[in-house]
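Retry 2 of 3 after timeout on previous attempt. Resubmitting C-alpha coordinates to design endpoint.
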Protein backbone atom coordinates (compact mmCIF):
# COMPACT_ATOMS: atom_id res chain seq x y z
CA UNK A 1 0.00 0.00 0.00
CA UNK A 2 1.44 3.33 -1.06
CA UNK A 3 1.81 6.31 1.20
CA UNK A 4 -0.90 8.95 0.73
CA UNK A 5 0.12 12.04 -1.21
CA UNK A 6 0.93 15.19 0.73
CA UNK A 7 -1.27 18.22 0.30
CA UNK A 8 0.27 20.87 -1.91
CA UNK A 9 0.79 23.28 1.02
CA UNK A 10 2.60 20.57 3.03
CA UNK A 11 5.18 19.84 0.32
CA UNK A 12 8.64 21.24 0.96
CA UNK A 13 9.69 22.63 -2.38
CA UNK A 14 12.10 25.37 -1.31
CA UNK A 15 15.73 24.96 -0.37
CA UNK A 16 17.74 27.34 1.75
CA UNK A 17 21.52 27.21 1.78
CA UNK A 18 23.43 27.92 4.96
CA UNK A 19 27.08 28.83 4.58
CA UNK A 20 29.31 27.65 7.42
CA UNK A 21 32.97 26.96 8.04
CA UNK A 22 34.15 23.45 8.89
CA UNK A 23 33.90 23.95 12.68
CA UNK A 24 30.38 25.38 12.47
CA UNK A 25 29.25 22.61 10.15
CA UNK A 26 30.59 19.91 12.49
CA UNK A 27 28.93 21.59 15.46
CA UNK A 28 25.56 21.71 13.65
CA UNK A 29 25.88 18.06 12.62
CA UNK A 30 26.78 16.99 16.17
CA UNK A 31 23.81 18.82 17.66
CA UNK A 32 21.46 17.44 15.01
CA UNK A 33 22.69 13.89 15.69
CA UNK A 34 22.16 14.39 19.44
CA UNK A 35 18.49 15.14 18.79
CA UNK A 36 18.04 12.27 16.35
CA UNK A 37 17.15 14.66 13.52
CA UNK A 38 18.71 15.17 10.13
CA UNK A 39 20.74 18.35 9.74
CA UNK A 40 18.08 19.80 7.44
CA UNK A 41 15.23 19.09 9.87
CA UNK A 42 17.28 20.35 12.80
CA UNK A 43 18.07 23.67 11.09
CA UNK A 44 14.46 24.08 9.90
CA UNK A 45 13.18 23.50 13.43
CA UNK A 46 15.67 26.01 14.82
CA UNK A 47 14.83 28.61 12.16
CA UNK A 48 11.08 28.22 12.68
CA UNK A 49 11.38 28.12 16.50
CA UNK A 50 9.89 24.64 16.67
CA UNK A 51 10.76 22.76 19.86
CA UNK A 52 13.81 20.52 19.65
CA UNK A 53 14.04 17.65 22.10
CA UNK A 54 17.13 15.54 22.30
CA UNK A 55 16.91 11.77 22.44
CA UNK A 56 19.00 11.81 25.61
CA UNK A 57 16.45 14.05 27.33
CA UNK A 58 13.61 11.73 26.36
CA UNK A 59 15.54 8.64 27.45
CA UNK A 60 16.54 10.11 30.81
CA UNK A 61 13.01 11.32 31.48
CA UNK A 62 11.57 7.89 30.70
CA UNK A 63 14.11 6.35 33.11
CA UNK A 64 13.12 8.85 35.75
CA UNK A 65 9.42 8.10 35.35
CA UNK A 66 9.89 4.32 35.38
CA UNK A 67 12.12 4.50 38.47
CA UNK A 68 9.59 6.69 40.23
CA UNK A 69 6.79 4.26 39.38
CA UNK A 70 8.81 1.32 40.70
CA UNK A 71 9.52 3.19 43.92
CA UNK A 72 5.82 4.01 44.32
CA UNK A 73 4.90 0.33 43.87
CA UNK A 74 7.41 -0.73 46.50
CA UNK A 75 6.17 1.94 48.89
CA UNK A 76 2.59 0.84 48.40
CA UNK A 77 3.46 -2.80 49.04
CA UNK A 78 5.40 -1.91 52.16
CA UNK A 79 2.51 0.21 53.45
CA UNK A 80 0.08 -2.63 52.77
CA UNK A 81 2.33 -5.11 54.55
CA UNK A 82 2.87 -2.89 57.59
CA UNK A 83 -0.83 -2.09 57.89
CA UNK A 84 -1.72 -5.81 58.02
CA UNK A 85 1.07 -7.14 60.25
CA UNK A 86 -1.33 -7.80 63.12
CA UNK A 87 -3.43 -10.19 61.03
CA UNK A 88 -2.47 -13.85 61.10
CA UNK A 89 -2.99 -14.42 57.36
CA UNK A 90 -0.42 -11.79 56.44
CA UNK A 91 2.30 -12.74 58.90
CA UNK A 92 3.26 -15.91 57.03
CA UNK A 93 7.02 -16.09 56.56
CA UNK A 94 7.64 -12.32 56.72
CA UNK A 95 10.56 -11.35 58.91
CA UNK A 96 12.23 -8.08 59.90
CA UNK A 97 14.91 -8.98 57.34
CA UNK A 98 12.22 -8.89 54.63
CA UNK A 99 11.33 -5.35 55.66
CA UNK A 100 15.01 -4.38 55.72
CA UNK A 101 15.41 -5.78 52.20
CA UNK A 102 12.42 -3.77 50.95
CA UNK A 103 13.72 -0.58 52.57
CA UNK A 104 17.20 -1.10 51.09
CA UNK A 105 15.67 -1.67 47.67
CA UNK A 106 13.65 1.52 48.01
CA UNK A 107 16.76 3.44 49.04
CA UNK A 108 18.60 2.15 45.95
CA UNK A 109 15.70 3.31 43.76
CA UNK A 110 15.80 6.73 45.44
CA UNK A 111 19.53 7.01 44.74
CA UNK A 112 18.89 5.97 41.14
CA UNK A 113 16.23 8.68 40.81
CA UNK A 114 18.64 11.25 42.21
CA UNK A 115 21.40 10.25 39.77
CA UNK A 116 19.02 10.45 36.80
CA UNK A 117 17.77 13.86 37.92
CA UNK A 118 21.38 15.05 38.28
CA UNK A 119 22.17 13.79 34.75
CA UNK A 120 19.22 15.72 33.35
CA UNK A 121 20.27 18.86 35.23
CA UNK A 122 23.86 18.55 33.96
CA UNK A 123 22.66 18.12 30.40
CA UNK A 124 20.37 21.15 30.64
CA UNK A 125 23.27 23.22 31.99
CA UNK A 126 25.55 22.03 29.16
CA UNK A 127 22.93 22.86 26.52
CA UNK A 128 22.35 26.27 28.10
CA UNK A 129 26.10 27.00 28.01
CA UNK A 130 26.29 25.80 24.38
CA UNK A 131 23.50 28.14 23.33
CA UNK A 132 25.26 31.23 24.79
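Retry 2 succeeded. Sequence:
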Amino acid sequence: MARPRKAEEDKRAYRTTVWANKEEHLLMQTRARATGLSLSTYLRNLGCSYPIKSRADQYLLSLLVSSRNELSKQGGLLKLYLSKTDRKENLGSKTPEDIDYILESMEQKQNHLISIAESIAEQVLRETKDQK
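Attempt log closed. The chain has a mean pLDDT of 79.
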